[in-house]
Amino acid sequence: MGVPGGKAPVLTMSLMVTGNLLGAGILALPVNLGPAGMIPSLAGIVLVWALMLFSAYVLADQPELSQEGSGGLPAFFGSKLGPSAKWLAVAADMVIFYGVLTAYLVGTSTVVNSLFAVPVPRWAVTTLYFCAVAGLTGFGMAILRRCNAVILLLMGVSFAALIAMTLGHADPERALPMRPEFLPAAMPVALTAFLFHNLVPTLCREMRGDVRAVRRSILYGSLLGLAMNVAWTAAVFCALPMEGQGPATLMNAFEKNLPATVPLSILLDSRTFTDIGLVFALLSMSAAFLANGTALLDFLKDLGDGLGRRPGHTTAWLLAFAPPLVVSLVYPDIFLAVMNLVGGVGICLLFGVLPGLLTLRKAQGGAKLLAGAALACFAFILVFEMGQELGLTHIKPDWEYWAQFLE
């Protein structure tokens, strides 16, 4: 990845950012945002991109993260904000890592079992996929570094094909109805669609602490991700009816925790689209599983070092991958639910609240106001999601409103 004796190119690092933020989030985004309508959803996506860009810039500005053996983000926040911040970061990181790995497993098995007449039960599909991707983590990031360009090229081609085929069924009138009051309930999943922040320390090291170059890599890579998320969301909104007879609707996908490619494949009734959708889902979620799985192994080993008892490789592997497998087998229909938990709790805490507090302690003037506004946004999403999880807040899709557009 790096350049011996020099820093990695901005373009290479930008593509790494884009590759990291494309995972289960982009497949969940149109479905979870669906009940809000397209226009509020696109506004929410841009707002979330700006918030996540701000928090990534905060991390990129920290010289400690460019040093080898820095101990990771929990140790960094502990050194800046105290021991309680360290353990809060540890808890948030665990929610993120275990949550996204579970989402990749259930998301992949959902796509395969919903669209293909596979001769094995769903638990077998989940287990086979798990064995493949969890086994590949034994190669660490080496396999992704060698294959990153090819993976991104295939993802780009398959994504463009999906958009082109979806636009053939687009109806611009579907973009007009809206219920913006539902938007807060969908913001956590939007956060997961812009998650690449665990990569920032690697960017800092690969670019030899050049903050301007790191910022440019983050900006260009996240802008490409923003364009893809906006294009995908708009295409799905205009192609799929919100309500109607049969399973090819956004509301049905929302109720059943399905990725967007499932109702689209039913609507288009095209084997080509279904196959391309499977390729895109497998590439995006498998690459993300490898990256996050490898990072989780390193995280557990660093955590063990801090506790004075570093786990062996086999123990670390079991601690990392057994819980997501068990959860995905016991609860196979939690794709959107687990994404909400990851975004609304894990990401808000680790990449929203903590960076916001760090900036507030140092910033002055306009920068302090900006940090306060970002912190308030993340805190609102966090409190709202906690309320949803605890049953204290209840925002549900407005079924009566969308029923008038029944198709």
UniProtKB/TrEMBL annotation:
The record lists the membrane-crossing segments as 12-33, 39-60, 87-106, 126-144, 151-170, 182-200, 220-242, 276-300, 312-331, 337-360, 367-384
Q: Which InterPro entries match?
A: Amino_acid_transport_2 (IPR018227), Trp_tyr_transpt (IPR013059)
Mention any one GO cellular component term assigned to this protein in its UniProt record. plasma membrane
State whether keyword Heme applies.
Answer: no
A Pfam family annotated for this UniProt entry: Trp_Tyr_perm
Its record classes its membrane topology as: Multi-pass membrane protein
Where in or outside the cell it occurs: the entry states: Cell inner membrane
Instruction: Specify the superkingdom.
Output: Bacteria
Query: GO MF annotations for this entry?
Result: aromatic amino acid transmembrane transporter activity
Q: Does the keyword Membrane apply?
A: yes
* Primary localization class, coarse: membrane
GO biological process per UniProt: amino acid transmembrane transport
Protein name per the record: Tryptophan-specific transport protein
> From what organism does this protein derive?
Fundidesulfovibrio magnetotacticus
